[in-house]
Design goal:
Elements: H1 2-15, H2 17-30, H3 33-44, H4 50-57, H5 61-73, E1 77-82, E2 85-90, H6 93-101
Antiparallel strand pairs: 1-2
Amino acid sequence: MESKRSQIAADAVNDAQRRISQWAEVFSLCADPTRIKILFAIHAAPDSSVNQLAQAAELSPNTVTQALATLQRAQVVQSQPDGRFRRWRLVHAGVHQLLHQMEAPHSELHPEHLPQQVD
């Protein structure tokens, strides 16, 4: 039974190898308090500008811009031009789920979630 348990555990790790790497990257991105503050702000108020996020997180606009660049390269957030501003939105479903696990607050600006599909 012990060898079967070891084999089952090894199979689980092998089957999840790609996801393990992806989640390790997500956790690395979310391990930074500055980025977490920004993600909480974007989660509550999607389509905020850098200045709005900076004010909400009590950070400088330059710090927010640098953090957003890191998050954008990792495809966690994306921006849309809006006149003189860029509006930022969370686009990574896994990070969104993680924010929910961390009890990130919602607001009336947060989009409604579609019901989970049950197979």
